[in-house]
Amino acid sequence: MPEIEVPKVVLRGPEDGETIVLPMGGLTAHITRKASRTETGGHWAFGEAWQDPDFDNPPHIHEEAEAFYVLEGSYTYTDADPAEGIGPGTFVFIPPGAVHGFRTGPKGGRLLCLWPSSVEAAFFGP
Q: Domains in the chain, ordered, with CATH?
């Protein structure tokens, strides 16, 4: 009789995970994926991201929800109320179909990110 594989808890330390650098308009975002969509059954991916000062992620739409938790820096979000001065400790939830984007403040920023599987595929590939 085949042995059944029991799922195991995954732990990743501060330096663990797959990292990409995303250049946009001469500035960069550094993204470290901690959990992939394949590990979550295709539901979502989780990671940490750092953006240069004045990094601009232009307005766009996803058909799945997305969320961020601000750790450092300040952000201005498209279509948020209030849009400016979003700082550490702020949770940002973006429902499916909502136009959203952000710009970091003069010191840049750092976020925890919960991405829909389609966004993770765009960043990290199939």
A: 18-124 (2.60.120.10)
